[in-house]
Amino acid sequence: MDSPLWIYLIGFSAQFFYTGRSIIQWYLTEKKGRIESPSLFWIFSIIGSSILFYYGWLRNDVSILLGEYLSYYIYIWNIRAKGLYECVPKFIPIVQALIPLALIPVVISGWGSFAADFLHNNMIPLWLILLGVAGQIVYKTRFIVQWLYCVKRGESLLPLLFWYFALVGGLLIIAYGIIRHDWVLVIGQVGIIPTIRNIMIGLRKNED
What we know:
By secondary structure, the chain is mainly α. The protein has helices at residues 5-32, 39-58, 62-81, 91-109, 111-119, 126-151, 160-180, 183-188, 192-207. Helix content is 79%, strand content 0%. The longest helix is centred in the N-terminal third of the chain and has 28 residues, at 5-32. The chain starts with a helix and ends with a helix.
């Protein structure tokens, strides 16, 4: 279950961006007294997702790969909704959209080895894989919920339900990370603190 140090460093670099987005969002939420959805939250999200996807590949961890696929394009939607792509060359969003798609032929062409490495990994029992996948699905479903909520309103927001999914999914990922000795995932869930705080602020705002 353990990996070379350099692989963990890649994972921690991804969590640096994920933790950074949480701190920025938390700071602005506390400052304004309402749940905020800052642009840097989404910029850091797509950077962290790209790095963590690579980390999951190196770790032979299908739960991480699945989790990043579930949220990657929603990050792109939020960045677009914020109008941020208007400030960068047009090829950047195109490249971002094509990167995950470009990996699909690679997986299909080498499906046999992919299945052996990811789905039938003797180092990871099936129940643990299912726990990790469940955690990632719950955790990343928050972005699907967020996207559905925001499409109707035409703007990028972070609704209260987003944080409930984040809390439950985060706890599952912590359990999975501890059992698998993946401290990148465990430490990465430091964002559970701002998650709880956002729930408290959101509930208080609903009472006003």
